[in-house]
Write a structure and sequence with these properties.
The protein contains six helices and four strands; from the N terminus they run H-E-H-H-E-H-E-E-H-H. The chain is mainly alpha-helical. The longest helix is centred in the N-terminal third of the chain and has 10 residues. The structure holds a DNA duplex.
DNA sequence: CGATTGACCGAAG
DNA sequence: CCTTCGGCCAATC
């Protein structure tokens, strides 16, 4: 373990996302310190396909748009998953995203 | 090993 | 609103 790789860190963060919340790639990237390399988070998600504990559907882009829904099986699966968690999704975009937005740092704050 | 791509972000035109 | 560019890093071709 050790020195958790970049991907593992992303997984850990994504797995900590509270139920009914969502975060953005950039937020995670920034939290990990990668900041500008938010793309790597996206790549991590791609690899996360094998991980059952990585709710990629809770990870959206900065605007709260379900950019990665195309990577999910089906067509509305991602949206349905979010709606299943009490979120509102319209036109591939999370409603009141700023209200459901969960910052990884909040995880630390709540732990204190 | 070089070039391309990718579930992004932000700024600029 | 749309396109272009820079950045950052890893995986793939």
């Amino acid at each position: 373990m050790t020195q958790t790789g970049f991907f593992e860190r992303v997984y850990e963060v994504v797995k900590q996302i509270p139920h009914g919340r969502a975060t953005s790639y950039g937020a995670i990237a920034r939290f990990l310190g990668t900041g500008k390399s938010a793309r790597m988070v996206g790549w991590a998600m791609n690899a996360a396909h094998s991980l059952p504990d990585v709710p990629a559907h809770r990870v959206v882009n900065r605007k709260g748009v379900l950019t990665g829904k195309h990577h999910f099986p089906g067509t509305q699966l991602m949206q349905q998953l979010l709606e299943s968690e009490g979120l509102e999704v319209q036109q591939d975009q999370i409603v009141d995203f700023e209200k459901v937005f969960w910052d990884p740092n909040d995880m630390l704050i709540g732990n204190v």
